[in-house]
Amino acid sequence: MLFLDLALFYFLYKKISKLKNSNESYQKKLFFFEKEYMRIFEKSTGLYVLVDLDFNILNYNKKFLKAVGMSPEELLKKNLIHFIPKIFRNKIKLLQNYLRYHNEASGEFALSNVKEGGSIDIFINAIKDNNTIFMLI
Q: pTM for this one?
């Protein structure tokens, strides 16, 4: 089910990008797709995070914010690797390198909560589109 959320989320992102470059007659469609995109992004059962190729955080949903225990202002200044426990850092860097040459990747990791301490086991599904990587955790 979570993978279907990621696929739909990615589809809507692509539609929005395409419509933004279209003429004004598409504004109603654009509004619908943006609204649906945000609904899925915030209401999904999964943790979503968008990162650049260096894994700097570009956007996230509330569930990801809660899982890492940071404020929105703090989170946007961070790199995803900051939230991966040291034991998994080499593995996440391999995933990062793999995504430089491929469009999809996945793997098992852990995610640290910097506020409360501790970590949770996670499975990352990632899709790359140009310089943005969509992750469903």
A: 0.70
